[in-house]
Amino acid sequence: MMHSNVGSLKTHFVGFLCCIALTLVAYFLVVKSIITGAYGALILTMLAFAQAWVQLSVFLHWGGESKSRFSFLLFIFMFIVLAIVFLGSLWIMFNLNERMMPDM
Amino acid sequence: MTINHTELHEENFRKTVFGFWTYLMTDCVLFGMLFATFAVLRDATFGGPVGRDIFDLNFMLVETFVLLTSSFLCGISGLEAMRNRKWGVQLALIATLLLGLTFVGMEIYEFSDLLAEGNSWSRSAFLSSYFTLVGTHGFHVTIGSLWMIVMLFQVQFKGLTWIVQKRLTCLRLFWHFLDVVWIFIFTFVYLLGYL
After folding, report:
1. Each residue of B102-126: b (16+ CB within 10 Å) or e?
2. Burial A6-44 (b: 16+ CB within 10 A, else e)
3. How far from B155 is each of A49, B125, B147, B170, CA to CA, in Å?
4. I need a labelling partner for B101 at 20 to 30 A (CA). Which of B1, B39, B93, B151 fits?
């Protein structure tokens, strides 16, 4: 069967509701100023990754052929490239910034 | 020697979807770069507005729910496609499309508001990177919407052939991917801009 991994209506609904919940939690944490600063940034980041994971699980099962080893390898490779360039850029730029002369 | 069409179709389907997934991975890297750029330039406001000054979080919340719901409905179209229900696919896709266009419309409204206030991409590096990141995402959604219109015609006039199903699968992957990227935009651009 070509499109075997489309999941079920139930998983879609549950995933959808989870995403709504995660979005609302993040939204209210910020709007009601419940969290601030670096700590707040960390919590929001975790919420974002949690929601991304929910969406990917529900949609990876939708996409068909999600169990392919090569697809998984591709994803890992993309993630590694992304991590290197993203974190590397941030590291370099902040380092450069520190080494610049202070504003008079 | 007989040709087993189903096997050929299966193999073609798998290869195409894998190829499209590869493209999506490159798109991830692209967005990752735009995020990195935004992260580095977010404080370079050059006397202009910061995130807090220009972001309307309530508006963004509605935009987020619009796109999220469209992604959900797109998934429904996948279920209908699997059950070979042509009308189900068409209805779900039309609903997806309408919400997607609403999202783009809201974004255009947001951008034109900023431009009207003089806060264009040339105002500061922060705004340059903001417009580039969010604009690129919006552009992707626009292209996806055009693709969806094309697919609606294909489903109507060709029916749910194996080729049309293959293309619909790629479209669904694309659409879901865009919502995943939006989660990160919503979090790192808008929410963190307020923190």
Report:
1. bbbebbeebbeebeeeebebebbbb
2. bbeeeebeebbebbbebbebbbebbeeeeeeeeebbeeb
3. 35, 44, 12, 14
4. B39
3-state secondary structure of A35: coil
Residues 6 or more apart from B89 whose CB is under 8 A from it? B77, B80, B81, B155, B160, B168
Sign of CA dihedral B26, B176, A15, B151: negative
A67 lies within 8 A of chain B by CB: no
B56-84 tens-digit pLDDT: 999 999 999 999 999 999 999 999 999 99
Render pLDDT for B81-126 as a digit per residue (tens, 0 to 9). Answer: 999 999 999 999 999 999 999 999 999 999 999 999 999 999 999 9
Residue of A nearest to B195 (CA): A36
Picking from B10, B17, B133 by the largest number of A CB atoms within 10 A of its own CB, the best residue to mutate is: B17
Put simply, whether the predicted model's pTM sits higher than 0.95 gets the answer no
Alpha helical stretches, state H, B42-161: 51-54, 57-82, 86-116, 125-158
Select from B140, B142, B138, B141 the least CA-distant residue to B111. B138
